[in-house]
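Weekly structure sync, notes
Attendees: PL (lead), two postdocs, one rotation student
Agenda item 3: pending single-chain targets
PL asked that the sequence for the first pending target be pasted directly into the notes so everyone works from the same version. It is reproduced below exactly as submitted, 114 residues in total.
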Amino acid sequence: MSDEDVYSVVAYLNSLPPVRNPLPATKVNFPVSLLIKSAPRPAGSIPHPNREDKLKYGEYLATIGGCPECHTQMNQGEPLPGCGWRGQGIPASGRHRNQREYHAGRRYRNRQVV
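Predicted structure, written out during the meeting:
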């Protein structure tokens, strides 16, 4: 996610009223306590994609939105040949009758997504 989008999300979250929900102290058992120490670190500064390049901007939005997770046929985490970002019309792993139902009744067209 680009730095600009991260700042926008943080600004939005800061505009919401706080939720009071006391939680117990987190305790992580061995070996997970060691694995956490080797977790990936932030990538540094990520530039915002150029909105004029519709294909790259659409790829960016689909990536941060997680669209390929359900709408692209994968084999070991890689899109099958020929699928790429198109998804080949795969409806959310068959969990929903159609895209309209899956996306909360909203009709998305190419110009609205890209």
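Discussion points:
- The first strand starts at residue 74 and ends at 75.
- The first helix runs from residue 3 to 15.
Action: rotation student to compare against the earlier draft before next sync.
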